Automatic annotation (TrEMBL):
It comes from Noviherbaspirillum humi. It comes from the Bacteria. This is Diguanylate cyclase (GGDEF) domain-containing protein. The chain holds residues 614 to 892 of 908 of the full protein. Residues 23-277 form the EAL domain.
Amino acid sequence: AKRAGKGRLSFYTPQLTEEIVNRTNNEQGLRHAIKSNQFIVHYQPRVNALTGELVSMEALVRWLHPTRGLVPPMEFIPLAEETGLIVEIGEIVLHQVCAQIVAWQQDGLPVVPISVNVSPRQFTDSDLEVEIATALTRFQVAPSMLELEITESCMLQDSAKVAEEIASLKALGIRVSVDDFGTGYSSLSQLQRLDLDVLKIDRSFTIELENGKHGVDFFRTIVSMAHVLDMQVVAEGVENPAQLRILQALGCDEIQGYFVSRPVPAEAASAFLQRKMLI
Ligand code: C2E
Ligand code: CA
Ligand code: CA
Ligand code: CA
């Protein structure tokens, strides 16, 4: 037995050993995946809720595993976050997105801004604004082509530091959005102080739209709050035309979800850029 903190004793059980071994294997697996370029980016369109016009696309990472196939982010992002490897993976995603924007521009396609997810660890630990400024210069991408998605959990820490971090990102000329809004604890006063561009309302609230008046009222309140704060509102996880009709009536600006398209590889995303009108 080993003495743990606060005078408690902890015992290494066989299960615990197995857990540690698994975790180590998985961490090695992630490191190997980073070294051998096994991460790819898929793109999901975001469209104007009234016109159906493509306004931007979200970059979503996938692990192209040699035997497991396409591994979804939920199966490796938590470990990547825990081990700090998310910082490297985040950089891979950012570079892939920048290279893709340039490739689309060279093909003469009307490129829309691409949004990239930022995890709490990237937001606090890394010199994010330096990393982004460097990538924009290196790839010759205009800052207006990039948007960062920050979850409410990024805003939990010391609010002066959060404000400073966001201000330094905004100073680069990129857009910053709040992801999964409604699932965390960001306060109205905090949102008001921060210079944020877009509020992405979590899919769980979109689902509630069809479950009666309460869900609709709730959504309407968030939309008007966001508009008072001068933010664009995006409904996440829109899957059917009934949800879209309600959102249009509520004045929601943009929608994203399977109703428009699932996330697709870059080649398929090129077709969205050409078509422009997606619904
Ligand atoms: P998220 O940022 O909230 O991304 C939206 C997720 O919802 C995506 O899952 C997307 O495929 C899924 N989705 C979109 N529309 C619908 C819909 O209509 N119905 C349903 N049921 N789902 C929908 P995905 O790609 O599996 O990503 C899951 C999460 O992993 C993301 O949630 C994000 O938190 C994280 N993630 C993905 N890529 C990255 C990345 O490059 N960096 C970081 N730090 N996190 C990432
Ligand atoms: Ca997101
Ligand atoms: Ca920083
Ligand atoms: Ca989200």
